[in-house]
């Protein structure tokens, strides 16, 4: 079984977005919906779905060109076209009869090797296929995506008792490697895994808030990043999801589950949905409401659940969370679990509910504990799942607290108590739902696990580590805040090269598994040195950074860079100099230095010039290539995906894009091993054609027009002219001039240093550090 073509039936929000993600992965998709009787265009709904996906924010397509892979159609004229699909997915209305009717039609046309799936979030899979043939049922497997499907990592795969193992395995592998999803194998029970656990937790949080007298804003301060969960926390997440959705899902789960599973809705939620019709973001009002003050600035008002009036609460201070804001996640979890007062009572109640219910559901919603942990991490954005959190606290501590509350222990926790085990995950083992240890190995390389073996840590400093990731490959990992590239990290680049050579390794990967690859240079240090007039220090730092970035290209061994998420400024310059780049599909690259009044000084300006001028045909003019490099840098263009990074020139067409971020380190290692046998150390070029004064004049003319039109400030113009000078190769009048890479690097360094001395640049850096936004001075 291979999935090379797909069909999605239902072009609503989810169906169109799933089709977009298939197109992002390079899979041709047939998108079908019903024919509207009052529309001349019989494909109106499918075309409208594609248009919505093209306009969606956040973007559904990694590159809008991917929309060409989706073919719109309708279920009356184009049903027979399903015969070409290797995978057919429905995303229609959540009504059992409608789904059964659809599957009767699909079975008549689908080929005998096609995998069939439903994206239903609530209707059991086995009920949908009653009455279908044994063969059809054997190829049916649930595929529950989370919205938006491009960005939420979770894909719940739900086999029925009739699903063939090869269908489950083929589809799971496709979902993970081609679509880039984190696969959780769920049992065919109400709510599956994530919604069963997550909605239970949300409903119980509302109940505990009511009991402890807290308010939505205080609850969100306690259950967001402080607890290792998203900023939207509990009630902001509810508003985003839609309070009617929470209401209906919780109501349905309450009817479909046992009497001891408390999905009781609070009176306040019932009032909001049933009486007020305040459903969250979709209606503009929910637990929160956005408004604007007299200056037009957005303010967030909080609902008073006693009066049902919205109040401006200002900046919320919550002692339990504020006291731990600089602590590590394990320290925060322990501190919050033992907090005193109403805040502590609330947190223990919510966390104990989570621990008790996850343990009770082990073996019910999934046959593996890690599936429950992963479902909450990938579907709800938790940093730790419930079993991982219990490991942080100590399982016996949690059990004692549950018993102190008078709770009957689920069988899993009773077995943990009887055996005295403190952890669910230990030394390559995980506990089964029956409470017995079994071998466990993560499906991909996890650096934190690797570092538990001291022999794998070749060298470590405050900002970076060098790790042996196996098969003769070393990895340089940054681990500073936002992985900013300070002196410590830069020094470790040289140390990594030395280790590769001295210890006989094949090559080097530059990557990490933090939140972002790198947000760029250490701006606070640059600002401090500039304000104190330490320009020799800045000059030395730029030289060291240029030495580090260029060493990635000119070392005697292959170097593969593995960027993901934010890869900005110096992070982009690192990637630009790798022999090869293995990028996550969700990589947001950009040379953004002009936003703080600087230019790319680590070889980025030089490298963009080379990339674009090398595309000029012999005898062709250089100016369009120079202008393209200038626009990319001076406008601080940042990609919204790795695919767009190719269009912008930050990635080469020959670089590798991996849909599943969890796989990029392994793929980067594979690329190192592929390059190593025949690797020849490159040398710096000395033959780069430049235009000198002619290029500067052309760019200066364009900048003058932008200045007169009010599109840029005078200081924007000044900074941009420094970019132009580097791209021109300096102020030569020789139209046949050729310069070296080192010459361009020297021009970069000179411009960077000059701009650091400007008060307006220092003001821009200070403003960015304070507000996170650029200053247009």
Automatic annotation (TrEMBL):
InterPro entries listed in its UniProt record: 3-OHacyl-CoA_DH_NAD-bd (IPR006176), 3HC_DH_C (IPR006108), 6-PGluconate_DH-like_C_sf (IPR008927), ClpP/crotonase-like_dom_sf (IPR029045), Enoyl-CoA_hydra/iso (IPR001753), NAD(P)-bd_dom_sf (IPR036291)
Enzymatic reactions: a (3S)-3-hydroxyacyl-CoA + NAD(+) = a 3-oxoacyl-CoA + NADH + H(+)
MF terms (GO), sorted A to Z: (3S)-3-hydroxyacyl-CoA dehydrogenase (NAD+) activity; delta(3)-delta(2)-enoyl-CoA isomerase activity; NAD+ binding
Biological processes per GO annotation: fatty acid beta-oxidation
Source species, domain of life: Bacteria
Pfam families per UniProt: 3HCDH, 3HCDH_N, ECH_1
Residues in the signal sequence: 1-25
EC number of this enzyme: 5.3.3.8
Domain 3-hydroxyacyl-CoA dehydrogenase C-terminal: 191-289, 369-404
Keyword list, A-Z: Fatty acid metabolism, Isomerase, Lipid degradation, Lipid metabolism, NAD, Oxidoreductase, Signal
Pathway: Lipid metabolism; fatty acid beta-oxidation
Stretches assigned to the 3-hydroxyacyl-CoA dehydrogenase NAD binding domain: 5-188
PANTHER family, per the entry: 3-HYDROXYACYL-COA DEHYDROGENASE FAMILY PROTEIN, 3-HYDROXYACYL-COA DEHYDROGENASE-RELATED
Protein name as it appears in the record: Dodecenoyl-CoA isomerase
């Amino acid at each position: 079984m291979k999935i090379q073509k797909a069909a999605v039936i239902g072009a609503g929000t989810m169906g169109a977005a799933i089709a977009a993600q298939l197109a992002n992965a390079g899979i041709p998709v047939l998108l079908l919906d019903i024919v509207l009787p009052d529309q001349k265009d019989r494909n109106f709904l499918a075309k409208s779905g594609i248009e919505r996906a093209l306009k969606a924010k956040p973007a559904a397509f990694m590159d809008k060109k991917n929309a060409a892979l989706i073919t719109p159609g309708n279920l009356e004229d184009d049903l027979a076209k399903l015969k070409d699909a290797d995978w057919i997915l429905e995303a229609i209305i959540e009504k059992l009869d409608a789904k059964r009717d659809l599957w009767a039609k699909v079975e008549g046309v689908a080929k005998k090797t096609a995998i069939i799936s439903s994206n239903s979030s609530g209707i059991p899979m086995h009920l949908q296929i009653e009455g279908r043939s044994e063969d059809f049922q054997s190829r049916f497997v649930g595929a529950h995506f989370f919205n938006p499907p491009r960005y939420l990592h979770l894909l719940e795969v739900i086999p029925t008792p009739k699903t063939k193992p090869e269908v489950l395995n083929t589809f799971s592998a496709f979902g993970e490697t081609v679509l880039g999803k984190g696969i959780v194998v769920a049992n065919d029970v109400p709510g599956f895994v994530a919604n069963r656990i997550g909605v239970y937790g949300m409903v119980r949080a509302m109940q505990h808030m009511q009991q402890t007298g807290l308010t939505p804003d205080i609850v969100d301060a306690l259950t967001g990043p402080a607890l290792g969960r998203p900023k939207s926390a509990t009630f902001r997440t509810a508003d985003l999801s839609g309070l009617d959705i929470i209401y209906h899902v919780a109501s349905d789960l309450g009817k479909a589950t046992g009497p001891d599973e408390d999905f009781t809705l609070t009176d306040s939620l019932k009032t909001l949905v049933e009486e007020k019709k305040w459903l969250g973001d979709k209606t503009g009002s929910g637990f929160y409401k956005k408004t604007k003050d007299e200056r037009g600035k957005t303010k967030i008002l909080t609902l008073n659940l006693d009066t049902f009036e919205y109040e401006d609460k200002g900046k919320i201070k919550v002692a339990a969370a504020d006291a731990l804001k600089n602590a590590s996640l394990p320290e925060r979890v322990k501190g919050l679990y033992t907090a005193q007062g109403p805040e502590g009572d609330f947190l223990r109640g919510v966390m104990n509910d989570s621990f008790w219910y996850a343990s009770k559901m082990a073996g019910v919603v999934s046959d593996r504990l890690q599936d429950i942990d992963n479902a909450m991490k990938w579907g709800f954005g938790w940093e730790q799942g419930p079993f991982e959190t219990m490991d942080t606290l100590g399982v016996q501590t949690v059990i004692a607290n549950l018993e102190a509350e008078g709770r009957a222990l689920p069988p899993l926790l009773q077995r943990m108590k009887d055996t005295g085990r403190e952890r669910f995950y230990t030394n390559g083992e995980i506990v089964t739902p029956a409470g017995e240890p079994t071998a466990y190995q993560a499906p991909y390389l996890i650096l934190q696990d690797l570092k538990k073996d001291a022999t794998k840590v070749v060298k470590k400093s405050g900002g970076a580590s060098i790790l042996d990731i196996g098969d003769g490959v070393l990895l340089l990992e940054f681990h500073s805040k936002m992985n900013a590239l300070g002196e410590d990290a830069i020094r470790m680049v040289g140390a990594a090269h030395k280790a590769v050579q001295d210890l006989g390794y094949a090559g080097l990967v530059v990557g990490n598994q933090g939140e972002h690859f790198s947000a760029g240079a250490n701006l606070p240090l640059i600002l401090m040195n500039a304000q104190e007039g330490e320009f020799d220090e800045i000059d030395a730092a730029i030289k060291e950074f240029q030495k580090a970035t260029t060493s990635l290209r000119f070392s005697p061994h292959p170097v593969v860079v593995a960027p993901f998420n934010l890869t900005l400024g110096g992070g982009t310059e690192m990637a630009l100099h790798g022999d090869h780049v293995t990028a996550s599909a969700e990589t947001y690259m950009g040379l953004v230095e002009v936003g703080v009044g600087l230019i790319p000084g680590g070889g980025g300006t030089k490298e963009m010039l080379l990339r674009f001028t090398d595309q000029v045909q012999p005898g062709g003019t250089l100016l369009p290539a120079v202008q393209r490099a200038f626009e990319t840098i001076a406008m601080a263009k940042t990609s919204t995906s790795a695919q767009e990074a190719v269009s912008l020139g930050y990635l080469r067409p020959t670089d590798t894009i991996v849909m599943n971020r969890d796989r990029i380190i392994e793929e980067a290692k594979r690329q190192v091993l592929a390059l190593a046998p025949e690797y020849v150390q490159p040398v710096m070029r000395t033959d780069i054609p430049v235009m000198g004064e002619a290029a500067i004049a052309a760019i200066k003319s364009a900048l003058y027009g932008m200045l007169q039109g009010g599109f840029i400030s005078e200081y924007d113009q000044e900074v941009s002219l420094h970019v132009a000078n580097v791209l021109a190769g300096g102020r030569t009048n020789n139209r046949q001039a050729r310069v070296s890479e080192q010459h361009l690097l020297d021009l970069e360094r000179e411009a960077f240093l000059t701009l650091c001395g400007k008060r307006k640049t220092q003001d821009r850096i200070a403003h960015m550090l304070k507000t996170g936004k650029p200053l247009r001075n």
